[in-house]
Amino acid sequence: MDRDYTELAMYREVRKLVTLTYILTTNFPEEEVLALTSQIRRIATSVSFNITEGSRSETTEDTLPFLHIAGESLYKLETQFHLALDQHYISKEDFEIINKKILLCKKLVSGFINYYKLIENEEFRTII
After folding, report:
1. What's the rounded Cα separation, in Å, for the pair 3 and 63?
2. Band of the pLDDT at 75, cuts 50, 70, 90?
3. Cα-trace Rg, the chain
4. Which of 44, 47, 63, 75 is in Cβ range 3.0-4.6 Å of 21 for a Cys bridge?
5. DSSP alpha helices (H): ranges in 1-128?
């Protein structure tokens, strides 16, 4: 499945999500630097890493696990930002902005997963 992942809308939107994540976590309390701030940033960057790794996979079967992990990480990121909102580390407005971006990325990742599953099924049917 060797392709230029940087051209994928999914990858471009995730990069925007990572940038927004770094911006929003910059003002978290100093005592959170090694905890929530670090964790949120790692989760956000892991989404892009998994998309990159999945795009370098040789087969659809190899690509799907990476996309699933990226999707799971987006749910974790959403939860972390809910916690940040609960602790008043971000405003309701900022939460709405990041949550919309997370939702868009979840939809894009899910769409790619469905696309690859369709390809996988089509490949299977042509073998039979």
Report:
1. 12
2. very high
3. 16
4. 44
5. 9-25, 38-55, 60-86, 92-127
